[in-house]
C-alpha cells in the first residue's frame, strides 16, 4: 500500500475519532499510529495535511456534501462514510495535485475497507456529483 493510501486511512481514523473525542489532531495521530499497520507512519504528513484541511474548510465541505447527497442529511450518514466524503471532497476542492478520478477511486477503496457493503456505491455517487461541477485539474 502506498504512502498516500496509508495517509488517507490515517486521516479517516483521525477524523472519525474527532467526532467522539476532545483530543487534538496531534494526540489523535499518535493514538492512531500506535494501532496502525507497520509502515503507516510513511503517510503521516499526508494524513496531517488532509485533517488540517478538512478542519479549516469543514463548513464548506459539509455544505457541499449536504447539497449533493439527495435525501440524506449529514446526521443520518454513517460517521465512516461522512468522514471518507469529507477527506475526498477536501482533495477535490483544494488539492490540485491529485486528479479527480484518483481521489474518487481512493475514497471508494477506503470505503470498501472501512465502511459497510453499501458504502462504496454511496461514496461514489456523492463524489461523482461533487466532481461533476468542478473543472479538470
UniProtKB/TrEMBL annotation:
HAMAP family: NusB. InterPro entries: NusB-like_sf, NusB_fam, NusB_RsmB_TIM44. The keyword Transcription regulation applies. This is Transcription antitermination protein NusB. CDD domains: Terminator_NusB (cd00619). Keywords: RNA-binding, Transcription, Transcription antitermination, Transcription regulation. Belongs to the NusB family. SUPFAM superfamilies: NusB-like. Coiled coil: none annotated. It comes from Geotalea uraniireducens. Involved in transcription antitermination. Required for transcription of ribosomal RNA (rRNA) genes. Binds specifically to the boxA antiterminator sequence of the ribosomal RNA (rrn) operons. Residues 6-131 form the NusB/RsmB/TIM44 domain.
Amino acid at each position: 500500500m502506498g504512502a498516500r493510501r496509508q495517509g488517507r486511512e490515517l486521516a479517516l481514523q483521525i477524523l472519525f475519532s474527532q467526532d467522539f473525542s476532545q483530543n487534538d489532531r496531534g494526540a489523535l495521530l499518535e493514538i492512531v499510529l500506535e494501532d496502525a499497520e507497520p509502515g503507516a507512519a510513511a503517510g503521516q504528513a499526508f494524513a496531517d495535511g488532509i485533517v488540517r484541511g478538512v478542519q479549516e474548510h469543514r463548513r464548506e465541505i459539509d455544505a457541499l456534501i449536504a447539497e449533493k447527497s439527495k435525501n440524506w442529511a449529514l446526521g443520518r450518514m454513517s460517521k465512516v462514510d461522512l468522514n471518507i466524503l469529507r477527506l475526498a471532497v477536501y482533495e477535490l476542492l483544494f488539492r490540485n495535485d491529485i486528479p479527480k478520478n484518483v481521489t474518487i477511486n481512493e475514497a471508494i477503496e477506503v470505503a470498501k475497507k472501512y465502511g459497510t457493503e453499501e458504502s462504496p456505491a454511496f461514496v461514489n455517487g456523492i463524489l461523482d456529483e461533487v466532481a461533476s461541477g468542478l473543472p479538470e485539474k
